Amino acid sequence: MNSAPAASGPPVLSPLPATPRTHGCGELRPEHAGQTVILAGWVLRRRDLGALLFFDLRDRGGVVQVVCNQQTQPEVHALAEQLRSEYVVWLEGEVVRRAADTVNPSLATGAIEVVARRLLILNDARTPPFSLDSEAPASEDARLQYRFVDLRRPSMQRNLKLRHDLALAARRYFDAQGFLEIETPFLTRSTPEGARDYLVPSRVRPGEFYALPQSPQLFKQILMIGGCERYFQIVRCFRDEDLRADRQPEFTQIDVEMSFPTLPAIYDLIEGLLEAVFAAAGQTLARPFPRLSWQQAMLGYGSDKPDLRLPAMAELASLLPAAAREQLKLRAGQPVFLIRIPNVGELSRRERDELRPWAEGRPVKVFEDFARLEKSFPEFAASARAAAAAQAGDLLVLVGEPEGGALPAWELARQAGQLRLWLAQRFAARHGAFAAGAFRFCWVTEFPMFEWDAEEKRWNAAHHPFTAPREEDLPHLTSAPEKVYAQAYDVVLNGVELGSGSIRNHRAEAQARVFAALGMNDEEAHRRFGFFLEALRYGTPPHGGIALGLDRLVMILAGENSIREVIAFPKTASAADLMMRAPTPVSPRQLRELGLSLRAEEPRR
After folding, report:
1. Where are the domains of the chain?
2. S-S: 280 plus which of 96, 169, 270, 413, CB 3.0-4.6 Å?
3. Given this structure, which CATH class describes domain 310-431?
4. Does the pLDDT value for residue 8 go beyond 70?
5. Nearest to 116 by CA among 41, 223, 218
6. Which letter does DSSP use for residue 448 in this model?
7. Is the pLDDT of residue 5 over 70?
8. What is the pLDDT of residues 422-433, one digit of tens each?
9. Closest Cα partner for 383 from 339, 318, 323?
10. Distance between CA atoms of 187 and 200, rounded to whole angstroms?
11. DSSP 88-111
12. Contacts for 296 with CB less than 8 Å, ≥ 6 apart
């Protein structure tokens, strides 16, 4: 990584001088020419041209070129010959303008350089395990194992600064809105949040366990009961679940709760927050956000996280003649969806052949050649084009359920929605809707209150059990749970769920009825939530809130594809910390203190 051979012997190391830095490396500009500056940082690269030796010095703020002249500063030049990548140095020098033909326009400090007068090596460094000179590819395992080096990469520095800016903007926004930031406990009790808890054994109460919070849900509701009225917190949460690009075992939420809310007030509050956060990242967004019911989202986009950057699907069942349905061998009475991807143009034969395997093994029929349908059913095709607002050059794909199928309408819509997203990614370069800076928000509202668990033969809370049903659906809570819709809402950006929230049950009787609908008898409800049901009887105000994923928000604004790129110390997909080498076994003594023993691992079959 260096242009010169290694110097013999170890480098001469010096202590940090008492004189502080005057500037950051990235701050220097032509107007600083003639000034004496003191800098410190890491050596990025070195170029030895004999009498002149150049090295790039990097700190958190940027990079600047340093010149060491053998004729005018022979001692500095001799010391600079010992420098290698990632050595830590301190220097004093003069800022000078570069000659016009040596200006580096790709560097913020490219119009100047620093002529070193004094140079100290504060520490040496081993050769880094991967290049920090650019965004050169490196394996993720190597980057996470050597995270203390990886954090120096410019992209990581930018992402961590962006994360700080967004969190600061959120705090300033909520403070201006009269919210209090209040911390809630990490050691609490297990509550149903939809994923496994991380459990912490108690030493002083053997056989009993704390749980790390999946969210501060009950605590923030108790804060409303306690009269705090407006609460927020940028809080760590923990879920023991399978990981993916936008999921980690520990993650950060912007958590919000308020008393006496109306739904429009919550929507306006969160849209204002996102406007402030986006402004901190130099972006603007359009308000108000579109609002879709869950049913509209599923029928229009096949997803409760709709990506509005591309057109909605058109539902054509009412336009499809019975004869056409019969000839296409589609199940009677089911929706038929037309997917439109704009500006794709004519597909080649190879591209059409690539689409056909998508439906193999799936319970749907895909008609990828719309031109053939037009020849067979010209009137239907014309109506379909009009319903989808199709233009010349748009890719049109018809999706339906084959005869003999048994899909619920929502599952058919979900299958069509998956194909829509697959096509959108496949032809992203043509339609251009996924270009950087294209941000399309929406609210999805009125979710089903419950989901049927076929394995357990019971209803589960679709959101969480503290969500309030719509007032008009209260009579159906225990008699027909499938008819109950929740006062729940998600805010979605570009097909990613940024936040999820709801109006809560603020009356003990209503909360008890929800528990009953979930199959809890009075004894179980009081055993698990007696403290909360008791609290609801002491003058609980109507309240509601939302939790937004800070990691996902930073990921999207940073243009990354994984939240691991915007978290300082993330886990791998197998929930391992490669740098700390965690998790690890613990000593028998620690287990004895906790009253625990480990079962012998069963042999694998």
Report:
1. 25-123, 310-431
2. 169
3. alpha beta
4. no
5. 41
6. B
7. no
8. 999 999 999 999
9. 318
10. 8
11. EEEEEEEEEEPPGGG--TTSTTTT
12. none
